[in-house]
Specification:
Blueprint (H helix, E strand, L loop, with lengths): L3 H14 L18 H11 L14 E5 L2 E4 L4 E4 L2 H4 L8 H13 L10 H11 L8 E5 L2 H16 L4 E4 L8 H6 L14 E4 L13 H15 L6 E4 L2 E2 L5 E2 L4 H11 L3 E5 L23 E4 L10 E5 L1 H4 L15 H16 L2 H22 L3 E7 L2 E9 L4 E2 L1 H13 L2 E2 L1 E3 L5 E4 L7 H16 L2
Parallel strand pairs: 3-16, 5-6, 5-7, 7-10, 10-11
Antiparallel strand pairs: 1-2, 2-3, 4-12, 8-9, 11-12, 13-14, 14-15, 14-18, 17-18
Helix pairs in contact: 4-11, 5-11, 8-9, 12-14, 13-14
């Protein structure tokens, strides 16, 4: 527990420290809404307690512009979390906001049963971002919905029922996706049949280190001994998000692809967090020289609008013609207008290139911090999807969970917001808007360095 004296010292120091926040030409209008306490009391009374707030003293965020957020007092924060890897273009990007407002004024929800250009234009643009024959789009409202649909399509197409995923992965909170998720904390005690979890090819904590071929052989054995020898599909995150920004070991996915294909399964890339230029590639799977059969996506697709999608080949897509498949809000005109605007902004603002350049710079600076601070056990990730794992003992890799929470709170006091993940809750998830600059990266490093030094 931090004493009142140390709290006052931190506050005084943070006032001085805030002078290093990069300049930004935007001042939010005065906030006249309810106070933080009033909002928190309503949440406690009317919302589920399973939806917690970050930080000991929760933030009341009332405004946002690009890579910055503002609280009720007008204080500015550097957002290095982007609404959990959602706001890739930046908060309230004018080239996303304007077409959305124009669409709302004209037509909000016509239903996909009528013709409207918004869903057709976005489908065409989205398909153009994917390789091979991946050109049939199904729209959903979230990543969970997208992954549920992908798993069902794999079972229908192959005629098999077993799904293999990877331990420590996260794919959603519905029945099928909960089964595919590889962490107990996200799995309720409901029937989850036909789900198998391969060893996590985690270069830092995994039993085979960075040897992707050995993990792939374990996947082969899992299929041979744990299933009929045939599977419906293999679903993976190229970089595990909720699991703590874990990059899969080199060579694993390319070897896994051959194994899955021999078992009759479909290769399913979950790009919910890593997609839309976040990793410096447009899709996370591109770094592994594989072309999936199905790609799922959400989060960054709409820059904050509820939108998800499944993209697959015409042949696989035909399985849904066996019955009626329909999603009322999937392909909503406003949401798909936002999606098209996101693609345009990524290209116009060169956000993919920026994610690669600034992400490489930031990762280098984080590795410098690792050399300075023994508590940093690992720095990993690509582009602007980075993780910093904290440990109390580097040799034993003992998770520094309490310290992670403390440092997060201290960084918040210095005006920097980061996320938290990993099975032990000891990994900083750094997933800022892709307009993040090198100056922003420097400030984040200063805040993290200062906060760790004051432990």
């Amino acid at each position: 527990m931090i004493s009142s004296t140390s709290s006052q010292t931190a506050t005084a120091s943070s006032d001085e420290f805030l002078g290093r926040l990069p300049p930004f030409e935007y001042t939010p209008p005065p906030y006249i809404g309810p106070s933080s306490d009033a909002i928190l009391n309503k949440r406690k009374e009317f919302l589920t307690s399973t939806m917690p707030c970050l930080y000991k003293n929760p933030l009341n965020i009332v405004d946002g512009k690009m890579q910055y957020l503002f609280d009720e007092s007008g204080r500015r924060y550097l957002d290095a979390f982007a609404g959990i890897a959602v706001v890739n273009c930046g908060h309230c990007h004018p080239d996303v906001v304007k077409p959305v407002i124009d669409q709302i004024r004209r037509l909000q929800h016509p239903t996909p049963l009528y013709l409207n250009h918004a869903i057709a234009d976005f489908s065409e643009a989205l398909a153009s971002k994917l390789p091979g024959d991946l050109k049939v789009v199904f729209f959903t409202n979230s990543g969970t919905e997208a992954n549920e649909l992908a798993l069902m399509m794999a079972k229908l197409y192959t005629g098999y029922q077993d799904i293999v995923s990877i331990r420590n992965g996260y794919h959603g909170n519905a029945a099928g996706t909960m089964g595919a998720t590889g962490q107990s904390m996200w799995k309720f005690n409901v029937v989850q049949t036909g789900m198998h979890h391969a060893l996590n090819p985690d270069p830092y904590r995994g039993v085979f280190g960075s040897d992707g071929e050995k993990y792939a052989r374990e996947l082969h054995d899992l299929i041979q001994y744990g299933t009929t020898g045939h599977i419906a599909g293999f679903v993976f995150e190229a970089i595990q998000g909720v699991g703590g920004i874990v990059e899969l070991a080199p060579g694993y996915l390319s070897a896994a692809y051959d194994i899955v294909k021999k078992a009759g399964g479909l290769f399913i890339a979950d790009e919910v967090q890593s997609g839309f230029a976040r990793t410096g590639d447009f899709w996370g799977f591109e770094a592994h020289n594989v072309v999936p059969d199905i790609v799922t996506m959400a989060k960054g697709i709409g820059n904050g609008f509820p939108l998800g999608a499944v993209v697959t080949t015409p042949e696989i897509a035909r399985v849904l013609t066996r019955r009626c498949y329909f999603n009322t809000f999937g392909g909503n005109a406003v949401a798909t207008t936002a999606g098209l605007a996101v693609l345009n902004v990524i290209e116009k603002d060169k956000l993919q290139e920026n994610a690669s350049m600034v992400g490489t710079y930031l990762k280098g600076r984080l590795n410098q911090l690792k050399e300075k601070h023994e508590i940093i056990g690992d720095v990993r990730g690509r582009g602007l999807m980075l993780g910093v794992e904290l440990v109390s003992d580097r040799k034993l890799k003992a998770p520094a969970t309490a310290e992670t929470l403390h440092i997060m709170d201290q960084m918040k006091e210095l005006g920097v917001l980061v996320g938290k993940g990993g099975y032990f809750g000891n990994v900083f998830r750094i997933t800022p808007p892709l307009c993040f600059t090198k100056d922003d990266a420097d400030y984040l490093i200063q805040a993290m360095d200062y906060s760790i030094s004051k432990m």
